[in-house]
Amino acid sequence: MRRKILLAWVLLGLAGGAVAFALGYGVAAGWVWSITALPVAAHVAIGVVRSLLGGKLGVDIIALAAILAAVGMGEPLTGAVVALMVAGGEALEGWAEGRATRALTALLARAPRQAARVTATGVEEIEVGAIAVGDILLVRAGETVPSDGALEDAAATLDDSALTGESLPVNLVQGGRLRSGAVNAGAAFRMRAEQTAATSSYAAIIRLTRDAAETRPPLARLADQWALGFVALTALVAGGAWAWTGDSVRALAVLVVATPCPLILAAPIALVAGIGRAAARGIVIKGGGALERLARVQTMLFDKTGTLTTGHLRLAAMDVAPGMDRDAALRLAGILAQGSTHPVSEALAQAARARGLALPLLDAPEEAAGGGVAGSVAGVRVLLGSQAFLAKQGVADLDGLGASAALVAVAGSVSFLAREGRAVAVFVLADTLRPEAPRTLRALRGLGVTRMVMLTGDRAAAAAPIAAALRLDAVQADCAPAEKITAVHQESAKVATAMVGDGINDAPALAAAGVGIAMGAQGTAAAAEAGDVVLLVDRLDRVVDAIAIARRSRRIALQAIGLGMGLSGVAMVAAAGGLLMPLAGAVLQEGIDVLAILFALTALRPGRSERASAPLPASAGLAEREAEHTALRGLAEALRDTAEGMDAGAGALPAIEALDARLRAEVLPHQRAEESTLYPAAAQRLGGVDPMGPLIRMHSAIEILVGQLGHLIVAAHGPGGWEAASGPIRRSLFELEAMLSLHLTIEEEALAELGDAPA
C-alpha cells in the first residue's frame, strides 16, 4: 500500500506541475515538482540510513544524490522524474514479486481454517487448531482436507493439483491415506484425523513455503556487492565529467542514468519467479540460495529404496517342486500371507489376487515375527516363510528348492512354502525400479549432470542390477547413515553435488549435501525438513524439472543484470559526453528499469529444456492401451510358466492352446489398435523420421511368432507330433514371453512423456 501511495503522490505532483507550466506559471510548476520529489528523497534517505546502521552502504544513495542535486541545481522536473523512477521501480517490484510468487501465495491462501467435526449430536464447526488425533471429520465437496488421516467412507475423489501439479483426480477407497491440502473433488466424505493441523503435511508445506519466500537469495546479496562497486564507478564518472568540463549538469545527468535499479530488482525477481514456477510443479525450493546451488549441480547422489525404486516388493520369480501346480502354490502362499503384515507377505497376497486366485481367510494363522506364517488350509498344515523358519518347523529337505543363496544374491527376499512337512515352492521377491527412473537419469545427463552415484544400505548384490539398469557411474552399498555423509563430503569436495533421498536414514546425508532433495510425497518428515528441495509428488522426474527451472532462473537473473547495467553504462558514457541531458536521462533510465524487470519475469515461462511433448488427446487411446498392459504382462508370465511346465508331456497341449487363443484375442487386437490410432498420434508429437518404426517392427515379430505357435500346435496333434513339436513349442513360448515383456517395457518408456503421469 505504501508503494502505491508514494507512486500516486509522484504522479499527482507531476501532473499538477505540468498544468501550472501549461498555464504559464513556470515558477509555481518548479515548486510543485520540487515538493513532489523531496518526500521521495526523504523515503530513500531513510532506507540509506537503515543500511548504514546495518553496516553497509545503501545502493539507493545514487538515486538520493540525483534527486537532491536536481532540485538544488534548478532542475525540479528532472528531480520529479527521478522520484517517479524510484516510486515506479518500487511499485513495479511489488507487481513483479506478486507475479513471481503467485504459486507460493496460492498455497498459503488455500490453508484450511475451519473444519467440520462429527460428534454424537451432529456436526460442529471448529477451528483447525482444535483438531485432535482420532476426530471424525466431514469434508464437504470443494473443501480442503484439514489434516492427515484415513478415509472412513467407501470412496473419495481428491484434487491434488495445487500440491503436486497433477491435473488428474486421485480416487481413494476406504482406509486410503489422506493428505491435508488436497481438495474434495467429489461427494462429501468422512475421515479420521491421524495428525493435528499443526503437524499435518500441509502445515509442513506452509512452513517450507514461507521459508522459501522469506529467504533472501545469495545472488541478490552478490548484486548488492556489485551495486556498491557501481556506486564508486558512478561517483568517478560523474566527478570526472564535472572536473574535465566544468559542467555540473553533466555530472547530474550521469547520476540520473546510473541508478542501479536493474541490479537491485532484476536478480531476486528472476529467482523468486523460478521458485514460484517450481511450486506450481509440486516442488518446494527453500529459498533463492537453494535454487542457485541447484542450478550449479554436476554430481547427483541417489538413495535406492523408495527413491530409484518404488520401495514395494513384488513377485519376481517362483519355482515349484515336481507334482505341484504353480497357481496352486501361489494360492496357498496368498492365503497364508493374508495373515501377516510383513512386506513379503503383502507382496505374495497381492500377486495371488492379481492372478484372480480365490483367497479365503484363515481363522487362526500363527505368525512368527520376522520368520513366517503357519496355518491349516482345507485341513492341510501349510508353512510360509524363510528357510530358517521352515527348519525350526522340522522342514529341512527343500526338495531341490534349496538354491536360495543364488536367488538371494539377485533378489530382495526369498520365501518358501511347505505343505504337510515338505517344501513345495519357493518365491523370489524384489523391489521394482521406478518406471520413470531410467528416463529421469537420461534427462539429467542431458542437462549437464556428469556423475551419478547410488548410496544404499542394501547389499551390493541387490544394488548391482539397479545400477546396471540405470547406467550409474558408481555404487556404494552397505552404507550406514554416517558412511553416506562421508560419501557426500567426498563427492562435494570436487563439484557441486545434490543428494536425493526419502527416508529417516537419508536425512543426515540430505543435510550434508550441497543440495538435499527430499521425496516428500511418500518419504519421511525428517527427510523433508533436512532437504533444501522437497518434491510434493511421488515422481522422481520432478528432479529434472527442479534443475531445469533453477538453471534457467539463474541464467535469466544474470542476463537481466547484464542487460540493465550494460544499458546504464552506455547511458552514463553518453551523459558524461554531454549527449544526454538530465531529464532525458531520467526518462531513459525508467525505460531501462522496466526492460530489465520484464526480462527477469521471463523466468516464469518454461525454457526449451523444460518443454515436454504435449500430452496425447484422449482419442489416441493411450490410457486404454496402458490399462491393457497389466493383463498382457500376466499373459507373458503365463507363457513362461507354461513353457517351464511342459515336462508333463502332451497333457500340456490344452494349456498351450488356451495361451494361443489368448494371444490372438488379446495381443494381436491390442497391437492393431495401437498402430491405427495411438502410434500415428505419438509420431506427430515425438517428431523425427518414423519414431514408432522400431515398435511396429516388434509387433510384426510377435505376430510371426504367434503364427508359428499356431502351426506347431496343429502339428503336435498328428501322429508322433508332440515329440517333434514340443521342443519348438517351448522355444516359441519363451521367445514370445521375452519379446512381449521387452516390447511392453520399451513402449511404456517411449510413450511415457506423452501421458499425464508415468506409465
Overview of the structural elements:
By secondary structure, the protein is of the alpha+beta class. Among the domains are: 64 residues, Calcium-transporting ATPase, cytoplasmic transduction domain A, CATH 2.70.150.10; 153 residues, 3-Layer(aba) Sandwich (Rossmann fold); 107 residues, Calcium-transporting ATPase, cytoplasmic domain N (3-Layer(aba) Sandwich); 137 residues. The chain is built from 27 helices and 22 strands. The protein has a 7-stranded mixed sheet, sandwiched between helices. Helix 20 links the parallel strand 20 and strand 21. The chain is elongated.
Would you spell out the secondary-structure blueprint of this structure?
Layout: H1 2-22, H2 26-53, H3 61-72, H4 76-100, H5 102-109, E1 114-119, E2 122-127, E3 136-139, E4 149-151, E5 155-159, H6 161-164, E6 170-173, E7 177-178, E8 183-184, E9 189-193, H7 201-214, H8 218-245, H9 248-257, H10 261-280, E10 283-285, H11 288-295, E11 299-302, H12 304-308, E12 309-320, H13 326-337, H14 343-354, E13 366-368, E14 372-377, E15 380-385, H15 387-392, H16 404-410, E16 413-419, E17 422-433, H17 437-446, E18 451-455, H18 460-470, E19 474-476, H19 481-492, E20 497-501, H20 507-512, E21 515-519, H21 525-530, E22 533-535, H22 542-576, H23 582-600, H24 622-644, H25 653-686, H26 693-716, H27 721-751
Parallel strand pairs: 11-18, 11-20, 18-19, 20-21, 21-22
Antiparallel strand pairs: 1-2, 1-3, 3-9, 4-7, 4-9, 5-6, 5-8, 10-22, 12-17, 13-14, 14-15, 15-16, 16-17
Helix pairs in contact: 1-2, 1-4, 2-3, 2-4, 3-4, 3-9, 4-10, 4-23, 8-9, 8-10, 8-22, 9-22, 9-23, 10-22, 10-23, 11-22, 13-14, 17-22, 22-23, 24-25, 24-27, 25-26, 26-27
